[in-house]
Amino acid sequence: xxxxxxxxxxxxxxxxxxxxxxxxxxxxxxxxxxxxxxxxxxxxxxxxxxxxxxxxxxxxxxxxxxxxxxxxxxxxxxxxxxxxxxxxxxxxxxxxxxxxxxxxxxxxxxxxxxxxxxxxxxxxxxxxxxxxxxxxxxxxxxxxxxxxxxxxxxxxxxxxxxxxxxxxxxxxxxxxxxxxxxxxxxxxxxxxxxxxxxxxxxxxxxxxxxxxxxxxxxxxxxxxxxxxxxxxxxxxxxxxxxxxxxxx
Length: 248
Ligand code: E4P
Prior knowledge:
Elements: E1 2-6, H1 10-19, E2 24-26, H2 29-34, H3 40-55, E3 60-63, H4 69-80, E4 86-91, H5 101-109, E5 114-119, H6 122-137, E6 146-151, H7 152-159, H8 161-177, E7 183-188, H9 193-199, E8 206-209, H10 211-218, H11 223-247
Parallel strand pairs: 1-2, 1-8, 2-3, 3-4, 4-5, 5-6, 6-7, 7-8
Residues 6, 26, 28, 30, 117, 149, 151, 153-154, 188-189, 208 line the site of erythose-4-phosphate.
């Protein structure tokens, strides 16, 4: 299972790269805004290129800022020209609920790496997978996976964490049963360490985790106390060796 960092904060990304736990990065317009990315497309371009260089060859997802099919297609082509490891996030529908699958199908068929985002149901996930697969079949030599992002945290807020687990599990089972290859499930909107613990066992290929939740995952009630005990006893042991040597 891969871990993506759900952030556009360069220092945080650098930190988790140095820990050896960063397999990729996901951003969206909300994340960019929170991480101080300003200046519209220029700002997004600058930050995305920096992240892409920093994590290469791992992928960074950048989201288009339109929900109109033609604009999405032209933006996605522009974004994907910024670096070879940029996957383009496109929401499953527009703000009125109209399908954005035509853009997704067309972009995948033109070799743009896609991350279909903002999904909360099994039905949405399988439609996205079908459109991606149809696009991929137009390029059988294509190597990179495309992504389907299921927003488990948002499912939980409406229906509980177990429902989110069911959607993730069912989607993975369906992909495997029908032998869909080259499509990876990303668990999005992870909010807590309990979410990580549950959804890391869902069969999803990737968990995208915000930095503050990774920090929570590192710590447990007795870890610091245990480390302090070992270090204290190590010091005592060293002092005893010193005394013994003086007696010889
Ligand atoms: C990841 O790719 C998503 O953009 C992110 O996890 C969304 O989470 P949210 O529900 O906090 O917006």
